[in-house]
Amino acid sequence: MVSTSGAADEQKATRDSTPIDDERTCVVTDTLSRKTTARNTGQLSAATPILLACGIIAPLLNISVLLVLGAIRPDYNALVVPDSNLELGPGGWMQITNYIVTGALLLAFTVGAKWRLLRGPGSTWVPVLLCVYGLTFVAIGPILPDPSLGYPLGASEELTVHGAVHSLLGLVQFSSLTAACFVLARRDAKLGNLGWSTYSKVSGLLIAGSYLAFALVAKLVDGGPAGLIERIGLVVCGTWIALLAIRLMKQSAQHGSAT
């Protein structure tokens, strides 16, 4: 009888203490989770301006390098030949590196942009499309184009698999940024930012138009200004990204001062 009574008392004590222990465990777990989340959020928030600044550096780097290389490369006509042909011939590694580094910077910018565009229309698709845009730069580095439009001088312009893939990546590149412009335009229109909405729409149309014009001139007009048209499109792309980065950096600074 004594043993049975003692066991019953022990079971009762265990039963009575279980809810309290569970509650304490939940409180401790929740507290640790909140601290971890706050710490990670603080670290990401502190890194956001740096990540967003990559959106300014990337287009400046890409355009500066291709303009310099196009000016100093023998037998290369920047008005006619696309910038990707700078990957071919002597010194091609410099343009290859330019593409890869530019792509890496754009991917870093995408992370910062995603952090700033947390909610609302386009908060998912704008970063996704920017990510695709950055990845295409990384990919076209090692995947070389075929010789075309007379450069490199005397090289066979026969179509190859890697050349076709390179051209396809170029189409994806311009298409993804065009789509990002229109998605952001829709977001800004809904949020009442009509100036930015209009600018993004115009940029999207110019990007798409420049790519189409480049492709047609390169295909149909012998010695036509395909290279110039492509570079105009790249400047439009780079300007839109850089201005978006500046805009998001200002928003990040305002958010930081408010908190």
Automatic annotation (TrEMBL):
Query: Which regions span the lipid bilayer?
Result: 44-72, 92-113, 125-144, 164-185, 205-222, 228-246
Q: Which organism is it from?
A: Nocardia camponoti
Q: What are the entry keywords?
A: Membrane, Transmembrane, Transmembrane helix
Write down the InterPro entries for this protein, in alphabetical order.
DUF998
Q: Name one Pfam family in it.
A: DUF998
**Region Disordered, residue ranges:** 1-20
Highest lineage ranks of the organism? Bacteria, Bacillati, Actinomycetota, Actinomycetes, Mycobacteriales
Q: Domain of life, per the record?
A: Bacteria
The protein in question is named: DUF998 domain-containing protein
